[in-house]
Design goal:
The complex is a heterodimer of chains A (141) and B (127). In chain A, 33% of the residues lie in helices and 25% in strands. Chain A has 141 residues and is an alpha+beta fold. Chain B has a single domain, classed as Transcription Regulator spoIIAA. The mean pLDDT of chain B is 91. The chains are: A alpha+beta (141), B alpha/beta (127). Chain A: It comes from Luteibacter sahnii.
Chain lengths: 141, 127
């Protein structure tokens, strides 16, 4: 699935729906893997739309979801401001979210759930490449 | 898939809210709105039970709503207990250490037992 969406929340939700349908059609991708990809996609896209364009300008996000026999790959490119996921310290997790300020959880979830998470900043913007669920496809030939 | 919310407050000391579907960036505001009507129904010091048996999915947006709700209940000296989270929800709770393990229950029986225990402690002589 390759898709370019504007940096608006309603378009994020449409993209999530399409990604889900795409994953569902791939019968070797199990429910747990689908939920993982959906969650990471939601967290990163919502993050980009909410924080990537503080000046309010129009932008776009390219989504490339590749379902391979051995894993799922996701590549996101956007033209928002730089965000360095490696530069963020892991959030403070006191054992009860009611004890902490909100924020930082989405990125922490994305980094924890994806098997690999590679960020780079190029002349056109941010690029994140993620791999998912290699263990889920062990039964594939 | 969206979110369905149903609540029952048979007694002022305890309300139960059933969530079905997804609690995410698309639905958390709906949840926050619904809970604004429910929390005042619970007595100060009462218990709010969130039945998560049919909640398929939660994201950080949903986690923030849950945290907010738990804070509001705590400010009223109440407690929020979570019932039967499903695999995706459990996984997310585990990663972010969302709630104390002691406040998550696998069944209504387990939860009732816990509340009975607290009740006994409160009514015990000298306790």
């Amino acid at each position: 699935m390759r898709l370019r969406i504007p940096n608006r929340l309603e378009d994020v939700f449409s993209a999530l729906h399409l990604a889900e349908e795409t994953l569902r059609r791939a019968r070797h991708v199990d429910e747990g893997c689908r939920a993982d990809v959906r969650l990471v996609l939601e967290e990163l896209l919502v993050n980009t739309v909410r924080h990537g364009y503080p000046d309010g300008r129009d932008g776009h996000i390219d989504i490339d979801l590749r379902i391979l026999t051995q894993r799922v790959e996701l590549e996101l490119n956007d033209d928002g401001q730089a965000f360095d996921p490696g530069g963020h310290a892991p959030p403070d997790l006191p054992g009860d979210l009611a004890d902490r300020d909100a924020g930082g959880l989405g990125l922490h979830l994305a980094r924890s759930i994806a098997d690999t998470f590679t960020y780079s900043r190029g002349p056109k913007g941010n690029r994140v490449i993620l791999h998912f669920c290699p263990q889920a496809f062990d039964e594939s030939p | 898939m969206s979110l369905s919310i149903r609540s029952e407050s048979p007694q002022p000391s305890r309300s139960t809210v059933w969530l079905e579907g997804r609690l995410d960036a698309a639905t958390y505001l709906e949840f926050d709105d619904a809970m604004r009507d429910v929390t005042p129904m619970v007595d100060s010091g009462g218990t709010l039970v969130l039945d998560l048996s049919a909640l398929d999915y939660i994201s950080s947006a949903g986690l923030r709503s849950l945290a907010l709700l738990r804070k509001q209940m705590r400010d009223r000296d109440g407690r929020t207990l979570l019932l039967n989270p499903q695999p995706q929800v459990k996984k997310v709770f585990d990663i972010v250490k969302a709630v104390p393990v002691a406040e998550v229950f696998a069944s209504v029986a387990e939860l009732d037992q816990y509340l009975d225990h607290i009740q006994r402690q409160m009514t015990a002589p000298g306790g």
